[in-house]
Amino acid sequence: MHIEIDEISKLFGSTAALHPVSLAIPSGALVALLGPSGSGKTTLLRILGGLEFPTSGRVRFDGQDATGMTVQDRRAGFVFQSYALFRHMTVFDNIAYGLNARKRATRPTRPEIARRVTKLLDLIQLPDIGARYPSQLSGGQRQRVALARALAIEPRMLLLDEPFGALDAKVRRELRQGLRDIHDTTGLTTVFVTHDQEEAMELADLVVVMSMGKIEQIGKPQDIRARPATPFVRDFISA
Amino acid sequence: MSDRAPSLTFRSASDETPLTRWSLIALSFGAMGLLVFAPLLAVFAEALAKGWWAAVASLGNRDALSAIRLTLTIAAISVPLNAAFGIAAAWFITKFDFRGKAFLITLIDLPFSVSPVVAGLCIVLMFGTNSFIGGWLVAHGYPIVFALPGIVLATMFVTFPFVARELIPVMIEQGRAKEEVALTLGASGWRTFRTVTLPNIRWALLYGVLLCNARAMGEFGAVAVVSGKIRGQTATMPITIEMQYQEYLSVAAFSLAAVLALLALVTLLLKTALEIRHADQLAATHRH
Fold first, then answer.
1. How do the residues of chain A divide into helix, strand and coil, expressed in percent and rounded to 5?
2. Which residue of A has its CA nearest to B187?
């Protein structure tokens, strides 16, 4: 799905989290929103997901205005930094949550839900953990379950907030490859937020460098490395 | 390096010496026994001072039965209402940012700091026959003060903080991410509350409801002011106990007191039973 962000701004009280920013995300791209904390990257992601609404500007999905669209209608697979798994449910029920939440008319049958959950567990390469509770999983496993849960709703896009933030370096590298693979198999437009420039450069097709609520530079990783547009970008990517 | 002889038992830094440990244990048990257990036992002993028959007979009279019925009715009305209000208040306070939030939290605590007698007087002032609202309601056949509605209002005022106070810290700790995930997965607000919020707060909710219930059944001060203490009509269990005690009907007073204490113990046992029954689930959700 093609995403257009047109002059979006966001005020929290009197502080501006986002100055008007514009960005076009081509369908099927894997995009990194890169910046230090307080740069507005998470706010922008939450606006795409419908968890925040912009103070001004428009969001368009495939050319259609989606600025005021409810979070439920957006069908954005959202993965939180903390994973936010439902700890009172098994992994199976976590992944099936979105399907069970559908209205009766569009809800798949029980065996169909089971089939899809099994398929997703295979996709994240954890086929045997359906009966476990989140507390019995490692950090990396939890992250993958959160990803499977987001994918279960057949999302139109995938939005990830610091998806590897809480993991150690080795698991991080494995999961990076995992996300790349899942992106390539599903072909979903994917946007992830990170403060780790190495992660952004290695994983993304398109990197959006942000600072203080503004976009500093948009480009392919190699272009940003070769020609940083501002002193901030140069400093940030060499850090 | 150390003046202590090397030992095969491993100690951790947070361990205490046996002496400290045992004195602390003895102190807690001693205080519990002296301040809680012994007085409770004394109530039962006093109730049974003239034998089982006298105790049971004193509970069988009309006033005592009416008091028990009234107290249970009040708890049955005010506890569910306060649970609902408490959930709503805790939800509102923890899930939204707004101006005056700190003030609202203080307001929720108000019943804890205001004397119940003052609370009772406030209700009399608000809804008494001489007030505008009270006068109108009495004229239309719905008296508040010296009647069940007034007692329920007084009880609800006094017990309002219990549920909200239990829930707010739990809900703050849990944050909003889980609810937000449920919404992004397509769940409605109500479904999110039912399947995500409620299961995560149910133990705190249960605990708050039990405390609220215990206090609702035991409330004296506020109820004493608004009820008018009409025997057989508006006298709750605590009020009846006090009246009987003042009239030197000690067996009657202590028998009813024993019943009140038993009701509280039952709620406590219920909670413990639930905890034991769901122990594995509690462990699964409280790890990490």
1. 40, 25, 35
2. A101
Query: Exposed (0-12), middle (13-18) or buried (19+): which is A163, by Cβ within 10 Å?
Result: buried
Spell out which residues of chain B touch residue A72, defining contact as CB-CB under 8 Å: 183-184, 186-188
Q: CB of A214 within 8 A of CB of A21?
A: yes
B28 touches chain A (CB under 8 A): no
pLDDT, tens digit, 9 for 90 and up, residues B210-224 = 989 989 999 999 999
- Of A61, A67, A75, the closest CA to residue A7 belongs to A67
The pTM of this model reads: 0.80
* Chain A contact set for B182 (CB, 8 A): 86, 97, 101
Q: Give residue for tokens 């056949």.
A: B141
Q: Which amino acid, one-letter code, is at B136?
A: W
Amino acid letter, B286: H
CB atoms within 10 A of CB B20: 10
| Residue A25 token pair | 């995300």
Can you name the residues that pair with A4 across neighbouring β-strands?
A24, A60
Query: Which of A51, A102, A160, A191 to mutate: most B Cβ within 10 Å?
Result: A51
Burial of B112 (0-12, 13-18, 19+ CB in 10 A): exposed
Give the other-Cβ count within 10 Å of B55's Cβ.
22
Q: Over the stretch A51-89, which tens digit does the pLDDT of each residue have?
A: 999 999 999 999 999 999 999 999 999 999 889 999 999
Give the sheet arrangement for strand A3-12, strand by strand: A15-25, A3-12, A56-61, A64-65
**Calpha distance A156→A179 (Å, rounded):** 16
The string of pLDDT tens digits covering residues A124-140 is 989 999 999 999 999 99
